[in-house]
Amino acid sequence: MTSRRAGPSRRNLLVATAAALLGAGAAGSGLAYRSMSGEDTSQRPAPRASTARPTPSPTPDHEALARTRIEKYLRGVGGRVTLAVQDRTSGLAVAAGTRRFQTASIVKVDILAALLLRRQDQGRRLGAQERQLARSMIVVSDNAAASSLYATIGYRAGLTAANRTLGLRQTTVASSWGLTTTTAADQLRLLSSVTDPAGPLTDDSRKLLFGLLGQVDDEQDWGITAAAGRASTASYVKNGWTTVDDDDGLWLANSIGRIVEPGRDWLIAVLSDHHASRGDGIRAVERAATYALKELRAIPPAAAPVH
After folding, report:
1. How far apart are CA 32 and CA 29, in angstroms?
2. So where are the chain's domains?
3. pLDDT tens across 39-86, in order?
């Protein structure tokens, strides 16, 4: 009997040869083939490198950061202190605190603005006596002069009407002018209104008002002017101080005004009370104004938001 040598069958050889040829063709020529699952793997896109860009860091809100630091600082200056500041050049503005305070003598700026509006409406300038009273009221803070001009503008009703024209919204005029109540934000509105060339005061009226605020007696030249820097070219101020019966006779100290320097035109209002002495009030106001401008001067004008 003739034996047959064991070896691969012809069918197995053909299958192996075909598989080798297909594998080589697919690898070398890019021919399509299917996996055991039937999926055409040649059509599957190659993994792509991630093109997602990193999320940029948000632009810091310099104004909000400064406000937070100012509010924290005010809690440590003594008494109860609020302020509002605006740079007319860049539009940068910060307000800290909403408490209402008696105005004391800072209302004298409001009385003068009301008098100027009244004379403008009548088509005439202040008379010689009115000018002298206005000077005494602002430069040396004469109370008798203020009472005389308060009567001239029509007392409470007259000042209230003028405040509507000036854009004040948080000031309540009292029969006794020194007991008028206001906020730092509203005093900033007053300063903005009387400063604005497009505001209700004429050029001559603005010149008279700021001319007097720039001549305040040395003994009364405190408050916001302490924040003036070496580069400041002009400063204007009106202060108010008194004891408050409703606050156990503790002292109130207010200061409003304007500081002009290269590239900046600051309007500032600092109101405060609950001080043991007038000196304590003055120091608190000056510290608040100085620190606020330090923070705001550090903000580049280009970073200031448009209001």
Report:
1. 9
2. 62-303
3. 444 455 555 555 556 555 455 688 999 999 999 999 999 999 999 999
Section 118-129 average pLDDT: 97
| pLDDT level of residue 114 (50, 70, 90 thresholds) | very high
| Average pLDDT over the chain, rounded to an integer | 86
Q: E strand or H helix at 148, and its extent? A: helix 143-152
CB 131 within 8 A of CB 102: no
Closest C-alpha to 271, from 133, 113, 52, 107? 107
- Is the pLDDT assigned to residue 2 strictly greater than 60? no
Phi and psi (nearest 5°) for 4? -110, 135
Residue 144 neighbours by CB under 8 Å, 6+ apart: 136
Tell me the per-residue pLDDT of 170-225, one tens digit each, with 9 for 90 and over: 999 999 999 999 999 999 999 999 999 999 999 999 999 999 999 999 999 999 99
CA distance 106 to 272: 12
Q: Report the alpha-carbon distance of residue 206 to residue 140 in Å, rounded.
A: 19
Q: Using CA atoms, how far apart are residues 235 and 225, in angstroms rounded to an integer?
A: 6
CATH number corresponding to 62-303:
3.40.710.10
Coil, strand or helix at 112: helix
Whose tokens are 């029509």? That residue is 154
Which residues are CB-neighbours of 57 under 8 A, at least 6 positions away? none
At residue 48, the 3 state secondary structure works out as coil
SS3 231: coil
